[in-house]
Amino acid sequence: MRTGGDRGCSSNQVLVVMFSAVAIGIAGATGGGALQAQGAPTALREYPVPGGSHPHDVAPAPGGAVWYTAQTAGALGRLDPATGKTQQIKLGEGSAPHGVIVGPDGAAWITDGGLNAIVRVSSTTEEIRRFPLPAGRGLGNLNTATFDRQGILWFTGQNGIYGRVTPTTGRVEVWDAPRGRGPYGMTTTPQGGIYFASLAGSYVGRIDPRTGAATVLQPPTADQGARRVWSDSRGRIWVSEWNAGNLALYDPSSGRWKEWRVPGEQPKPYAVYVDDQDMVWASDWGANAFVRFNPAKETFEVFPFPTPGAGVRQILGRPGEVWGAESGVDKLVVWRRR
Is 60 helix (H, G, I), strand (E, B) or coil? Predict the structure, then answer.
């Protein structure tokens, strides 16, 4: 562990695979004294989606369904986990959807890099509404979205922007990000804070929702490749550090950072998510696995994906479930609490 101060996120057959989780304890500030123990058998369940979908992001929806972005198909997909059936809603010519979340209105909200727009899809009528970036802004390479506590949608674009959409008026505003290219994952805290990660910029940004201004928060490790961020119930920000192979924590109340090395020879933590019990999940491309971190005990558990090359780029969940989109193999995967 490293610490530091503040220096400035059709029908298919269901596949079920049983395996054992490996628990790894990290003791001490330097990460020494690793302890391995065999865990109880755990089930991950995979759900195939139509071939060529390249599911990028996933979002559990009201009523038990699960949305996913079919990036190479230009569609929003919906899975019924009870039956394994899927449906795909075409979003329009040129669409290449990246992220999807469920809004306070129950609709699916999509960051669509191909359309250069935020897209809303009604969960009941499947009506599609686009909120394009302002004219003259160019391609934003739109990435991730989050809603603040006032119902405003904020979004990132890897080409060096972040912005917001006011759903009631349709107004779209865009700001240039500090250090240019890189804004990627995004999250809202229970207290209303808005944060994003900059992959190319290797920092976490904190947005002032009144002015739209962003403040750079610098993790202790240089060029760490902060990829995604997620808030826990206390408003602390968890960060997946893609380049460094670390899981990081920023505490806004103290301005201090902590970092933990993800277990394995060449960890590549891509996505990060905090579940309803404040356990921290990451998708590790180095291990082809979900990795769960217990902040109280400072221990990791590794849950290998059943299919090699899964390529989970994003994680979301609901109470008792953690979902990932396996972009490399055209499947969705879920861990369920027993």
Answer: strand
Q: How many CB atoms lie within 10 A of CB 39?
A: 13
- The DSSP line for 292-310 is EEETTTTEEEEEE-SSTT-
Non-local (6+) Cβ contacts of 123 within 8 A are 61, 62, 102, 106, 107, 108
Model confidence, pTM: 0.90
Chain segment 187-224, per-residue pLDDT in tens: 999 999 999 999 999 999 999 999 999 999 999 999 99
Q: How far is CA 146 from CA 3, 163, 186, 192, in A?
A: 28, 11, 6, 11
In this structure, whether the domain defined by 2-29+113-336 belongs to CATH 3.30.160.270 is answered with no
134 phi, psi to nearest 5 deg = -55, 145
Whole-number Å distance between alpha carbons of 237 and 274: 10
Q: Provide the 8-state DSSP code for 11.
A: B
Q: What is the pLDDT of residues 266-316, one digit of tens each?
A: 999 999 999 999 999 999 999 999 999 999 999 999 999 999 999 999 999
What is the per-residue pLDDT across 119-170, written as a single tens digit (0 to 9) for each? 999 999 999 999 999 998 999 999 999 999 999 999 999 999 999 999 999 9
Bridge partners of 257, per DSSP, are 4, 250
As to burial, measured by CB atoms within 10 angstroms (0-12 exposed, 13-18 middle, 19+ buried), residue 30 is exposed
Per-residue DSSP letters for 189-203?
Answer: -TTS-EEEEETTTTE
Q: pLDDT (tens digit, 9 = 90+) per residue, 6-62?
A: 433 333 333 333 333 444 444 333 333 232 333 445 579 999 999 999 999 999 998
What's the distance, CA 264 to chain centroid?
Answer: 21
Residue spans per domain, the chain: 2-29+113-336
CA geometry: angle at 25 spanning 229 and 289, to 5°?
50
